[in-house]
Design brief:
Layout (H helix, E strand, L loop, with lengths): L1 H24 L14 H8 L13 H10 L17 E2 L11 E2 L1 H11 L4 H8 L21 H8 L4 E4 L2 H6 L8 E5 L13 E5 L9 E5 L2 E5 L8 E5 L7 E2 L2 E5 L5 H10 L18 H11 L22 H9 L19 H14 L24 H9 L19 H15 L1
Antiparallel strand pairs: 1-2, 3-8, 4-5, 4-8, 5-6, 6-7, 9-10
Helix pairs in contact: 5-6, 8-13, 9-10, 11-12
Amino acid sequence: MKKPLSCLLALFMILQIAVCAAAEELPENDSPSLSSRVPLSTVKEWCGHGTEYFDKFGVTRQKLVKELSAHEHDNYYLGTPEIGMDWQSPNGDTSYNGSPGTNCAGFVAYVLRKCGLKSGDVIATMKKGTHTSWGGGRPYAMLSNASNYCTLVQKGNLIAHVFGSRDEMLRSGKCEKGDIILRLWTNNFDDPNDHDNHLMIFWGSRPGENKVWHTASGRNHIGEMIHEAGASFILIKFAPPASPVAGFRDVWDTDWYAEAVQYMKDTGLMSGVEEKLFEPLGVTTRGQFMAILWRMAGKPEPLSQEMEFSDVQPEQYYAKAVSWAKEKGIAAGYADGTFRPGQKLSRQDMAVLLYHYCASLGLDTDASAELSRYQDAYRIEPYARVAMKWANAEGLIAGTSSTTLSPGAAALRCQTAAILMRLQKSMS
């Protein structure tokens, strides 16, 4: 009996070695049961030869980015529960399914449709290839299937870049905010244990930033793109690559504030935080804003050269601006004798300063808008209500979304540039 037993042990060891060797040859997170993965070479054959951009279907990058930016800080999309199959009902609009819920492609489909997608053309193109068609009787069911966007690239002759990993895609420098990303694993859904495909919208402020807007992990959110070893990443492009604006490497001609940044640079009203960086999403400080208003007024010399505020020194770039603003009644300091030039400027405080600036010039400041359409209008401090109503009526300060004003939020540099460009142009 000893000989047969030793043979069995030897056979077991041989099999164990073979299994380990086979496992080493498989990519991470792969296994023999997940046999329906589409090889990278095949995906490149499918999606690497297009000559047209996605905007031919009616949606531009600018429209999509503007729509999502307007809801980046509310719950119109964010927090919507993740529900599989054909669900295209964000919290802000449940009309498609009757209750809140999106799957990954359903979220993207809803945003694209809201931005003017030629849905009929897209669906007709998807039907030209092999696809998984979901039933239910709703008109846009095919749009909520992530796999169909691979077919759309193929049959729609769309320009797309294919990568073997998330990190390769981020390193390529080709990602732009608003690009559609398809993480493709399979085109076969017979195995319920297999990996799934996933559709996302790139939301990085720079090409290499790992940030997407998507529905995953139970909800719609903005977060990191999860790497899945063995999956291909298809980057679908809306239009030719964006160009930098005004010499800044962080402002592109596709950004909604591009014109304003160029205007600020051309007029000398605002400069970058560095030679090549504008930092559009940085905050505006009280000292910075005083300096900009002072430049708009033609850099007038203040009547007094003495500094009234303990935290403003004569050699600081905003010193004359602060003195001038105090003399003109545009800005005041705090009870402790400070001006606090480095303090973040809120949107409502910006409105107050603009209101006093225009009043100092003898301009009409009687306009007043009804702000009840904004859900957070009640958050405007009493001292700022007249100014906010005036600034909104004059078209200077709009909402951060269709339903929010965000009066207490810090004024971003891109917002400041846009608001002051509107004011300057209205006065010329």
